[in-house]
Amino acid sequence: MPELPEVETIVRSLRSRLSGRKIEAIRVLFPPLLRNGRLSGLKKFEGTRLIGLRRRGKMILIDYQNGFSLLLHLKMTGQLLFCQKTAALDKHTRLVISFQSTARELRFRDVRKFGFIRCLKTAEAAAAPELKNLGPEPLGLDLQSFRRLLDGRRGRLKSRLINQTFLAGIGNIYADEILFESKLHPASDIVHLRPGQIKRLWQSIQFILDKAIAARGTSVRDFRDGDGLEGSFQARLRVYGREGQPCLRCGGKIVRLRLAGRSSHICPRCQQLIPVKRASKATTSQR
Predict the structure, then answer these.
(1) 243 in active site
(2) % residues pLDDT > 90 (the chain)
(3) Is 136 a residue of the active site?
(4) Cβ neighbours for 131, distance < 8 A, ≥ 6 positions apart
């Protein structure tokens, strides 16, 4: 599933090219794509301008001048592509948004059909079922806010990082890379983190996500930006997908663990589980 860096890359690649364009028509080629309302309700977008494109967590919000927005979730295999109208329509295309005075159109392609759209009033978007329970944006958190977010929490680090109600936008790939960067084991309990480890985790979140956005995301399967181009961060992955290969930090072997039904890639030498006994009373009082 595209994560924060991939969705941010799509938004950035399309924002300047779509903003201000007047909608000609919105065609839904796969009716179950729309989660609410009737397909005929999308006619209200015709003739109005697209005024904004933004990301929240792993989702995209397309804002229109008429006070409505389309929320789009790519799910596992979704792609949002700005194509020539004359280009052959792929059999996996589920949605087409055409614009006046341009030879291009926006197409949503989704092989597995898990993606969806929802029509919302822009002013009420934050209360939508898919958005209202999302945690804060990781790149918008300073260290003090991050410490408060962890305060009193328990649970495995990996499980927390990919929990969208805790932090919005981080998934399996970047959780693995963040934990490797911070030298923390995914099964370590948050409550046992020392202040220095919390700071290192926060710094790793900022570093990995910034680097991944700069590299225009990770293309290990279906991800493409708005022009159909791959990202390049897959060439910089240090643990994810590298089971059995040598650690680029210490030379040890990368292994794949199964935690809570999900795979986690780690270097056992660099990422040792925090023993419970190492959580001292002094540490607890500092937190």
Answers:
(1) no
(2) 92
(3) no
(4) 56, 57, 59, 71, 125
